[in-house]
Amino acid sequence: MKTTLNIIIATVLLAVATSATAKSWRINNNAAAAPDFVSINAAMSSDDVLAGDTLYLDPATSLSGEQTVSKQVTIVGPGYFRTDTPHAFAYLQDALTINAASTKVEGVIMLNEIRIRAQDVTIERCKYTTIVIGNSFYHLNAQFAKIRQCYGGRIAGQGSNNNYSSYCTIENCILISSSTCIDGLSIPEIRRNYIKETASSFLFANINSATITDNIIINTYETGVRLFSSVSNSVNVSHNVMSGTENASYPDNIYEGTEADIFTLTGQDDQLYQLKDDSPAKGYASDGGDCGPYGGLTPYVAGGLPNGYPYYTKAIIPAKSQDGKVNVSLKIKMQNE
Fold first, then answer.
1. For residue 41, what is the DSSP state?
2. Residue 187, CB-side half-sphere exposure with 13 Å CA sphere
3. Backbone angles phi, psi at 40, to 5 degrees
4. Over the stretch 222-278, which tens digit does the pLDDT of each residue have?
5. Phi-psi region for residue 178, left (φ > 0), alpha (ψ -120 to 50) or beta?
6. pTM (2 decimals)?
7. For the purposes of burial, counting CB atoms within 10 Å of the CB of 315, is it exposed (0-12), middle (13-18) or buried (19 or more)?
8. Neighbours of 274 (CB within 10 A)
9. Segments of the chain with pLDDT less than 50
10. How many CB atoms lie within 10 A of CB 172?
């Protein structure tokens, strides 16, 4: 549910403090927009930016060059796949490397790798290409990563027996990849996702002691193939709707259906993956709810707009000024889910 407000303003400045002492900063690569900083790197280099602060990426921001997070901050963008608003998106053209524990990134479009190299990092409501968790060469501990409500591709850890990328959570995501979707993870929780392979035989590889439940898992490139490679017997694979021939090893799942049998396939992008009324994923989750990204307590949010993010849907500019002033009326909505 969203709340609609009508206000008359000349400029909207988003400045939300996360605590009494934390500060908010605007990031925009266009210096003419008078941002606080022109890049994430510039914010990290400033003594004014402290742990606990929030960096807001202005709509239409496009940062080039690798961005490195060295302080525990929250980075917030305006979402993706939005068709109901006139605002633009925020892009990172090159890699984002996260070296600070408990960092959170949400609502950003990532056109290159996300490199998680610290503990308790959260990637939420982002559109990304690849996430790499940990770095065994540099012995960087990236345990307890959380990837939630994202639209993306491959997620790779450091190996099924490597502790640097263990205990991650992947939930309520739409993951579409032309190679192995989830690879090299130890003790992960993988639940309520749509995981789709488009050009390879295996969706999971090198997984140890995982919980893989309440997902929809489909290989659209080749039917009748195995979905798992080098996956330990200690993995709990249950209450998934899957294509493939794993039923001998993992009987507590449904092995039927194509995308057309499961999803409405109406709308575009992430809207395609809402469940049909007669979908086999309806009510099949371990808690009696629905399998897939739109089920559970934290369902996927189409468009990836962060919770609490205000955005305008309409601007009314009068043809004539009054007393030398032009009052611009903006219709504002607040994402509250």
1. H
2. 10
3. -65, -40
4. 665 567 776 765 778 899 998 866 656 778 888 877 899 999 999 989 999 999 999
5. alpha
6. 0.85
7. exposed
8. 18
9. 1-19, 312-313, 330, 332, 334
10. 25
